[in-house]
Each structure stands twice: as C-alpha cells, then as structure tokens.
C-alpha cells in the first residue's frame, strides 16, 4: 500500500492538498473519488454546468477540465520522477490553460469522459511503479518532490476542487 509522504518530500505549497487524502487504501480512495466526481458533475444540466459562484470564477465545466488537466500533468511528472528522470520539470499556469480553451462549449459528457480516461490512466500507471521508486525525488516547478508526494497531490487536488464545488457551487 502506498504510504503518505513525509513533509520533507514536497514543498509546503502542497501540504493542504496532501492533507485532504485520508489514511488507508490510496487506490480505493482514487476509485471512490472518481465515482463522487462523476456523480456530482453528471447530475448537472448543460446550463447549470456553465454557472460560476462569483464573477471571474471558473464555470463548473472549467473546474472539471482543470481537475483533468492538472491530473494529466501531475501523472506525467509522477512517471518521469518515478522512472529516475532528473530533468527539471516546468510548472504550468492554470489560468492560462483555462483562458486558452473553450471548455464551456464542450459537452459535460465529453468532459466527464476525459476526466475518467485520465483517472484510468493514472490508476494504470500506479502498479508499474516499484517500491523504491515511490520515494525517488525530482524537481517540478523548481521544487523537489517525491513520486509518492505527487500521487497524493493528484488525489488531494481533485478533492480540494470537489469540496469547493460542493460548498460554493451546489
């Protein structure tokens, strides 16, 4: 079972995300989280999915797409670091990613399918990582981070946004 990363394995920026991942079976949490995200977003009409809780905030479609984009990027980082690649991996500008897309024009069903495909890819990657590779460190966005910390960031980031959706949008 994947163990929670120690504080020395990641930048303090990620503490909040990692703290949202419960103790226990990490893979079971990812699976249950996927079901929860699908349950929340699949109940929305196309009109509801365009809602924003405040001006200049992302629509619900954009939030789901952001969760997906971030998991895609973090999974790539996880792969590179777990495989021993010590190349400094660049950061990304989440607002630029949203500004340069038309997610509000994409059907919610398509956005959900994209999220599920990315989550399935993440889940398929996990068993290919050896025990010793989980504690390997690399650099992402100028900060040292371990492979297992990235795995926890993936789950915690999605949970963070799911919590915001439930508290501020619904």
From TrEMBL:
It holds the Pfam family DinB_2. Gene3D superfamilies: dinb family like domain. InterPro entries: DinB-like, DinB/YfiT-like. Residues 34-164 form the DinB-like domain. This is DinB-like domain-containing protein. It comes from Paenibacillus pectinilyticus.
